[in-house]
Specification:
Elements (H helix, E strand, L loop, with lengths): L5 E5 L3 E3 L5 H11 L6 E5 L2 E5 L5 H20 L5 E4 L38 E4 L4 E2 L6 E2 L10 E4 L15 E3 L9 E4 L8 E4 L2 E3 L4 E5 L8 E3 L14 E4 L4 E4 L2 E2 L3 E3 L15 E5 L4 E5 L6 E4 L2 E3 L4 E7 L4 E7 L2 E2 L4 E6 L5 E7 L2 E3 L14 E4 L3 H7 L4 E7 L2 E3 L8 E7 L1 E7 L2 E3 L8 E7 L4 E6 L2 E3 L10 E6 L8 E7 L2 E3 L3 E7 L5 E5 L2 E3 L8 E6 L6 E2 L2 H6 L14 E3 L9 E4 L48
Parallel strand pairs: 5-6, 6-9, 7-10, 8-11, 9-12, 10-13, 11-21, 12-22, 13-23, 21-24, 22-25, 23-26, 24-27, 25-28, 26-29, 27-30, 28-31, 29-32, 30-33, 31-34, 32-35, 33-36, 34-37, 35-38, 36-39, 37-40, 38-41, 39-42, 40-43, 41-44, 42-45
Antiparallel strand pairs: 1-2, 1-3, 3-4, 14-20, 15-19, 16-17, 16-20, 18-19, 45-46, 47-48
Helix pairs in contact: 1-2
């Protein structure tokens, strides 16, 4: 059917439709039917009639039949692009142009474009600079796309915006949804072939905010503007965000909350101090139905809650989970879980900027970076079956302040197989009261792990038990790991222990070489490589010790890597490019059969030696550090 041959006529006007897609044409038809006594649709040599003169009941029947035929022929076959503008849109609009946008997208509360019929590959463009508030949320994806026809939601069109320039469309929960809120998700339903792109998603947390207007200094928070239910906030966490102190609420009245502040400068309430009461729960984007081909990209996630992204497959096998080019801050972990009896295959997490939660009020939750694998160590240990396989984690930048004692910035909980990690920065740039357990940790029955060209730094708070205990922790707590272990071209600086490989006998092969070590024994240890099961011979503080076991045979002498800027205690203060003369320059092995660029996307040599770490030498090619 040639689009130029389609003409829509009614008894008063003729509307050319040569610029319409099939689906947009149908929507225009549907908008005319309630208004016109006679509509003729001519598609080449085929016509569908709804004519004046039928008896009322028969006319309704014919109209319904015509609509049904059109929907069956058109809407199931052809995808369309829809525009969504919470401020200037209306769900009575057609939605297929920037001039006639919807107010809401399908899956948002109150969406009521009755004529919409989903087709795989539909695109929903959110207007830049516009905010969808709590009344439009939660946003539950209602449909699946298909192979080659992915449904897309987000701010892909940067020519359409409110204000002077484009900015990301905003999904804002205002921290008002209550416990365990989700702002965007699948509502536990199986949804596949979905892409969420270029959105700012924030404030999925469950919080109460205000200002102390009682006396000073005071042990009890007072806010006379509130009318709280008595003891509603018991066990929630109360933060004096002016003072930096916090505590867990033991009692509250309609206008007061009681607990003992600690960890701040005054640890008492002053008039005008701002506060947050929260349980820390909530997730910005959640896919818990186990769908395949899920992509979350170019989003800014500021959840003010425990989770930025959560994916899990509980009842089905799934594949192709891609999380990339996102900026994540003001929140806790993101998780990818495969449950016992099912497998999530092909997980790619890359080019994300992940800032530690810093002082964000997140309740009593234990916060890591990425958590991946089987969430049940007990079930993993019983079944010894991988539930997440073929993981690629690369070009990510994890930096800033990580308080609260996370287990790891990359944490495999259990039962993963075939993991490749390269071109990442793991940097603790501030001084925290709580130590990070390890920058990377594998816990239970993980197999076949390759770790290349990463930069690990705790230089701002060096030593064991200070910034972090170890860079890489492979000493399994439950069932032994297995398969091949490869660790090459990495930079370790400021740690008490660089590599804990666990029991040497658990691995079918070990290849640890071409790494630059700069450990410290400030708080003891100062180990480069440590494998258990072979006595003191496996605990090495020197390269000579490691080389006796066949490890680090080609590694340069232990030395500082000469970063452009060593972290000075402020989040974002590190620059992990290398200065001229760094011992990490030109001393790595060529891995171009595995990958071909550095963390900034600059090409690495196809022949000859490589630089160690995530970034090469600073200079003309130097790109952004994050």
């Amino acid at each position: 059917m040639e689009s130029s041959s389609r003409v829509l006529r009614n008894n008063t006007s003729e509307i050319p439709t040569q610029n319409y897609s099939h689906k947009e044409f149908l929507i225009e038809l549907l908008s005319l039917l309630p208004k016109n006594p006679q509509v003729k649709v001519r598609w080449a040599d085929k016509s569908i009639w709804v004519r004046r003169g039928f008896p009322p009941r028969r006319e309704k029947t014919m109209k319904a039949a015509g609509l049904f035929i059109c929907m069956a022929i058109c809407t199931r076959m052809f995808a369309a692009t829809y525009y969504v503008d919470f401020v200037g849109g209306s769900n009575a609009n057609v939605g297929t142009s920037k001039a006639t946008p919807w107010k809401l997208a399908p899956g948002m509360p109150g969406f009521a474009a009755w004529f919409y019929r989903h087709a795989a590959g539909d695109r929903f463009i959110f207007k830049g600079g516009v905010t969808w508030p709590k009344t439009a949320l939660p946003f539950y994806i209602s449909y699946s796309g298909a192979a080659g026809a992915v449904d897309t939601y987000g701010g892909e069109d940067q020519t359409w915006y409110a204000g002077e320039s484009w900015s990301q469309p905003v999904i804002d929960g205002l921290q008002l949804f209550g416990p365990n809120a989700v702002l965007i998700g699948d509502n536990g339903k199986l949804r596949s072939f979905i892409k969420i792109d270029n959105l700012l998603v924030r404030n999925s947390g469950n919080a109460e905010t205000g200002m102390h207007n009682g006396p000073k200094p005071a042990a009890i928070l007072t806010d006379t503007s509130k009318k709280w239910v008595v003891n509603h906030w018991v066990n929630y966490y109360l933060y004096d965000t002016t003072d930096g102190s916090h505590c867990q609420v033991t009692a509250n009245t309609p206008t007061t909350a009681t607990c003992t502040l600690a960890g701040g400068t005054k640890n008492a309430w002053s008039t005008g101090d701002a506060y947050v009461i929260t349980d820390g729960s909530g997730t910005a984007i959640s896919f818990s139905g186990g769908g395949s081909s899920i992509e979350i990209s170019h989003c800014t996630l500021q959840p003010h809650s425990v989770q930025s992204i959560a994916y899990s497959a509980t009842n089905t096998n799934s594949a192709h989970i891609y999380i990339h080019n996102n900026s994540i801050s003001l929140g806790g972990r993101f998780v990818i879980y495969g449950y016992t009896g099912h497998v999530v295959d092909d997980v790619q997490v890359y080019a994300n900027q992940i800032q530690g939660s810093g002082g964000t009020p997140l309740g009593g939750y234990h916060l890591d970076g990425l958590m991946i694998g089987n969430p049940s160590i007990t079930e993993c240990s019983a079944t010894l079956t991988p539930t997440v396989t073929h993981i690629s984690f690369h070009h990510n930048y994890l930096y800033g302040s990580w308080p609260g004692g996370p287990t790891a910035l990359y944490f495999s909980n259990a039962c993963t197989n075939y993991t490749t990690i390269y071109n990442n920065v793991f940097a603790l740039e501030t001084v925290e009261a709580g130590t990070v357990g390890a920058l990377m940790r594998w816990q239970d029955f993980d197999g076949n792990i390759s770790i290349y060209n990463n930069t690990f730094s705790t230089d701002a708070n060096p030593g064991y038990g200070a910034g972090a205990n170890e860079a890489i922790q492979l000493g399994s707590s439950y069932k032994l790991h297995y398969g091949a272990l490869v660790i090459k071209n990495n930079i370790f600086s400021g740690l008490g222990i660089d590599i804990v490989g666990g029991a040497k006998a658990q691995w079918s092969s070990i290849d640890v070489d071409y790494n630059l070590h700069n450990p410290t024994n400030i708080n003891g240890y100062g180990e480069t490589v440590w494998f258990s099961g072979i006595g003191n011979a496996g605990q090495c503080s020197s390269l000579a010790c490691a080389q006796k076991q066949g490890w680090e045979v080609h590694s340069p002498n232990m030395d500082a890597p000469d970063f452009v800027s060593v972290p000075d205690g402020a989040a974002g203060s590190g620059n992990f490019y290398l200065l001229s003369g760094s011992p990490a320059l030109g001393t790595g092995i060529n891995l171009s059969s595995v990958f071909t660029t550095d963390a900034a996307g600059h090409p690495r040599p196809s022949t000859g030696p490589w630089d160690m770490g995530a970034f090469g030498e600073s200079g003309a090619l130097m790109g952004p550090t994050r």
